Amino acid sequence: MTKNIVRQLKLPEGCSVESVFYGSGTLCISTQAGCHMACPFCASGRAGLMRNLSVQELEAQVELYPDIEIKRITLSGIGEPLSNLENVEHFISESKYPVSLTTSVPDASLLKKIIKLKHNGVMLSLHAGSFETHKKLIPKSDSLNLIFEAMTDIWGEISGNRKRKIGFNYLLFDGINDTDEEISAFIGKMLQFKEATVHLLLCNHVERSRFRSPDIDLFQEIYEKMRDAGLNVRRANNWRKEAEGGCGTLFLKTLQK
Question: Relative to the CA of 205, which of 1, 173, 176, 236 has its CA 20 to 30 Å away?
Answer without folding.
Answer: 1
